[in-house]
Amino acid sequence: MKRRAGASENKAAKKQKLLEELGESWLPYLTPRDAEFHQLWKTRYSKLLLRKAEKIPQELHHIVQEAFLTLQNHGCFFQDLVRIKGKDFLTPVSRILIGNPGCTYKYLNTRLFTVPWPMEDYEIKYCHPELFAACKALIRLNDYLNIEAVQALQGQIFSETKETEDTAVSDREQDFSTFIKGSLLEDQSNLYTPRNDCNSLKHRTSYNLTLLNYMDPLQMPYLKQEPYFGMGNMAVSWHHDENLVERSTVAVYSYSCEGSASDKVNEQDVEGRDPADWHVGLKVAWDIKTPGLAIPLHPGDCYFMLDDLNMTHQHCVLAGFQPRFSSTHRVAECSTGTLEYIFGQCEIALQNLQVDSDSVALSLKSLEVQVVKEVEGIHNEVEFEWLRQFWFQGKRYRKCTDWWFEPMAKLEEFWKKMEFMTSLVLCEVGKGERTMEQRNEIISCFLPLLTERQELRKEWTARQSIK
What we know:
Elements: H1 7-22, E1 29-30, H2 37-44, E2 48-51, H3 58-73, E3 78-84, E4 87-99, E5 104-107, E6 110-113, E7 115-116, H4 129-173, H5 178-192, H6 198-203, E8 209-215, E9 234-239, E10 250-256, E11 278-284, E12 292-297, E13 302-305, H7 309-312, E14 313-318, E15 324-330, H8 339-350, E16 353-355, E17 362-364, H9 369-392, H10 405-430, H11 436-466
Helix pairs in contact: 3-4, 4-5, 8-9, 8-10, 9-10, 9-11
């Protein structure tokens, strides 16, 4: 699910309208203590699957929870400075991205770079053997969740198919028309066969990274209150996960540290959810008629957001009293977010640079408008989507590995060549041998990209100063 232009403004308008409709009242929500809870889950939230901790192998719990603590002990969790509506905010949750080498994940205008987990054909040097073990544990969790997600989707498809077939049989009992009977069967076959295709399921469950989160609520000076249902403290506000492969499954492993018995709240004294426990909250997006759900998360529980749930619903994370880690496994949409991609872009741009065999002087092969526009667009992409994003986050990646520093140095060399190519364009435009029409044509495509570059440099300089 990619963030589209104007999406944030549209979301703000919807939120304002919803709050106006609510006035000073709360929307209803259910917890497991409510009699209608499971029925509502089954009918309106059926694509949210919870796997209880006792259903997950004990050995996997051990190595994953050990990995969380190892990463914390080595200082690998960081708050992100994200940009929302032109303003910068520090996330209340501290994070680290781990995944396929060379992958990135962008959210709220911040690009995170994976600490690579161990994979064949990649030489990855970790700063400490314990960090290698932690990343190895997380790719094991990733493989386990991938298998579970495929099985969950297959079960969901089977249930939907059976339900539809049962409905069709009931309809046919009321209509003995052979023609209609045949048509119904044919329609069902066409509808469900493609969705159960193994390649499609693999595509939607092949997690290429995990975003790890950590928060200790008692160390936070302030937590936002959930605004629609009165669910209490939020660690993460209502949202759709962004920049994911369409209809891909998100899998979340949750581990809240064990608290003392005194932390528990007497359920008879509390309306709504138990504030001592962490919960995942769910609601139908921008709907005030369907009650929300607050599902408690106990240490080692795992939940899956299947199929299009992330598109049709929103979720939030409701804080408990104890510190909590989570590992959120995603099929990130990486078509423009890998080293392979950006190096390919650089190769395209630098094809317009040629070296004179006699003087070794550099010149441009072409000043065609489309060529200049493409090269300068790639120039901006390299600087603002990669180099500044990487260095803005400082030396955080040195905590785990130096894997990214060599390719980023190579990318910086490409950027320097593109800077020189920009100066060559300016020189060529200034020469009197070109007609005014030719010069104006080049300037008209060139100037907006230079203006954008200048504005973005000012913006990044300002961000750096408040970091």
